[in-house]
Amino acid sequence: QVQLVESGGGLVQAGGSLRLSCSASGTMVIMQPMGWYRQAPGKERELVAAITSTGYTNYADFVKGRFSTSRGSAENTVYLQMNSLKPEDTAVYYCNVGVNWGKGTLVTVSS
């Protein structure tokens, strides 16, 4: 059974930074693509960033140049470094592996 736990969310002023972490446990997690999604109030969940088992990354246009995702040395942890945050980045951020989702961590960016 795969379990995903996100952490690192919080309140930050516009222009600030946060680093989210996603810790994964369970079989078949290592060496799988992992993704970050977000869902703002009243909006659909959307892809923010993804990383393959070999480290290839892909970003949504609205975060390119500001966010970066990487794998931890243990391979079952993924990070999302978020810089130059904007109020429109306010959302619950989720980690995803296959059909598995974490419970999310709230990021609030004040103007």
Explain what this protein looks like in three dimensions.
The strands form two sheets. Strands 2, 4, 5, 6, 9, 10 and 11 form a seven-stranded mixed β-sheet that branches. The protein is globular, with a radius of gyration of 13 Å. Strand 5 and strand 6 form a beta hairpin. Helix content is 0%, strand content 52%. With 111 residues, the protein is an all-beta fold.
Structural topology:
Blueprint: E1 3-7, E2 10-13, E3 18-25, E4 34-39, E5 46-51, E6 57-59, E7 67-71, E8 77-82, E9 91-97, E10 100-101, E11 105-110
Parallel strand pairs: 2-11
Antiparallel strand pairs: 1-3, 3-8, 4-5, 4-9, 5-6, 7-8, 9-10, 9-11
User: First CA to last CA: what distance?
Assistant: 40 Å
Overall outline: globular
The counted number of beta strands is 11
SSE succession: EEEEEEEEEEE
Q: Radius of gyration from the CA trace?
A: 13 Å
Counting H and I runs of at least 4 residues, what is the number of helices?
0
Strand percentage lies at: over 45%
What's the pLDDT, averaged over the residues? 93
Question: Structural class given helices, strands, pairing?
Answer: mainly beta
Give the helix proportion (percent range): under 10%
Mind summarizing the main beta sheet?
A: 7 strands, mixed
Uncertain segments: none
Please provide a brief summary of the model.
The chain has 111 residues and is mostly beta strands.
Which labels suit this protein?
seven-stranded mixed β-sheet, globular, mainly beta, four-stranded antiparallel β-sheet, 111 residues
